[in-house]
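quick q for whoever's on today - can somebody do inverse folding on this one?? i tried earlier but teh output was garbage lol. tokens:
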């Protein structure tokens, strides 16, 4: 797929994705901004910036923030959220920036196991002594939210093989080797757990359907079948009332909270030598 085609999947429900899904991950963005020391006057770039929540949070810290994404409809929201930032539509494999023009670059679930060349580009545009931070999913099968991930995985067999290559980054040592191959010195991985939270099953299904990965599943299943599958998965995470002590302990809670499911993110920061 050419980078210009990314907007077809990721941009088709840009406001829904931005306001129902992306906002759930604010703790992830804040954690990696902390680990990369983004603050006043930091020249900051977020690669695959989506609807720009990381750019917005970096701008609030006083950073000179820039975002780049392949989706024109997502970057329109990013620009509206951060009028003082520079937001670009472009290709992360050919960044339109000069060498060493940033202090920090990040990519939140944007650079995957097949993204070595994108990581090399990130390293190119960050100054010596600066850093590149990545986040990516942990082991999805071990997550409380796995039933929702499984809905997204209902794609054509050829797409499943491609997805397997993408998520290989979560395996031990894979992200570290990608950083090393890109000319970075990786630090230690950290883990962050947060909850997807939705007021009810219908909103959970709508939020899931707004994501880029859902586009491929919808193309394969059809919209009605996808939404029914998403509702069924969310219902499994939705317990009427408090239920048993076990349900409460695992976060499968309802009355007043709706659908809650824990996900795990991995964070890794690499330093540009020099």
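ok took a stab at it. sequence:
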């Amino acid at each position: 797929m050419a980078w210009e085609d990314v907007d077809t999947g990721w941009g088709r429900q840009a406001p829904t994705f931005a306001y129902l899904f992306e906002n759930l991950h604010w703790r992830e963005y804040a954690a990696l901004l902390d680990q990369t020391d983004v603050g006043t006057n930091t020249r900051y770039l977020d690669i695959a910036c989506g609807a720009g929540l990381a750019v917005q949070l970096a701008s609030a810290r006083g950073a000179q923030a820039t975002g780049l994404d392949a989706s024109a409809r997502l970057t329109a929201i990013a620009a509206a959220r951060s009028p003082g930032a520079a937001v670009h539509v472009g290709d992360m494999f050919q960044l339109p920036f000069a060498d060493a023009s940033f202090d920090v670059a990040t990519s939140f679930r944007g650079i995957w196991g097949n993204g070595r060349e994108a990581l090399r580009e990130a390293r190119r545009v960050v100054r010596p002594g600066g850093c590149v931070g990545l986040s990516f999913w942990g082991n999805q099968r071990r997550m409380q939210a796995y039933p929702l991930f499984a809905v997204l995985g209902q794609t054509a067999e050829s797409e499943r093989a491609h997805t397997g290559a993408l998520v290989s980054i979560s395996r031990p040592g894979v992200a570290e080797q990608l950083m090393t191959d890109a000319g970075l010195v990786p630090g230690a991985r950290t883990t962050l757990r947060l909850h997807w939270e939705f007021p009810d099953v219908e909103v959970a299904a709508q939020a899931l359907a707004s994501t880029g990965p859902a586009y491929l599943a919808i193309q394969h299943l059809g919209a009605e079948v996808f939404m029914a599958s998403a509702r069924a998965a969310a219902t499994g995470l939705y317990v009427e009332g408090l239920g048993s002590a076990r349900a409460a302990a695992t976060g499968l809670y309802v009355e007043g909270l709706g659908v809650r499911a824990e996900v795990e993110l991995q964070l890794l920061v690499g330093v540009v030598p020099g």
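fwiw The longest strand covers residues 259-271. also Confidence is low (pLDDT under 50) at residues 238-253. so keep that in mind when u check it
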